[in-house]
Design a protein that fits this description.
By secondary structure, this protein is mainly beta. The chain is built from two helices and twelve strands; from the N terminus they run ββββββαββββββα. β9 and β10 form a beta hairpin. The protein starts with 5 loop residues before the first strand and ends with a helix.
Amino acid sequence: MALPKKLKYFNVYVNGTSFVGEVESFTPPKLTRKFENYRGAGMPASVPIDMGYEDDALNIEWTIGGLAHEVLKQHGSSLNGVTLRFAGAYQKEDSEDFVKVEIIVNGRHKKHDRGELKLGGSNLTKITTKCTYYKEIVDNEEIIEIDVINMIDKVNGEDRLSKARNAIGL
């Protein structure tokens, strides 16, 4: 019988500062690809041509409780002015072992939605961070790395853009 690995504990670091106990949720990017349909002469149907990632494919959304003024100070930073690192511990109920998951992104905050401020409430701030760099590591194995600026699209150790960089002299 197989049981799923469940997220039991996590922390989020913002520019190296731990926000353990303050971040309530973290939504990784959806990693959506942009396809353009192509149908040439004699083709009975179109085929999806891969044009890279969608514009919002690397967006991160996360929610922090309480007064998040340290994060608000980063609003309007430079293109890669913010580094976020999600560190998660996943566990199956039939094991005492944990699987370590890290998500590292660079980008800048697009939105700080502080919602309604209420006396005694959590006063949650929902933050959207637009990223140009994304890396996910599971138990020290690099699963995916996307670096928009440096034209890197690495999945399972294979850099799918290395030949393209070579073709254009990079």
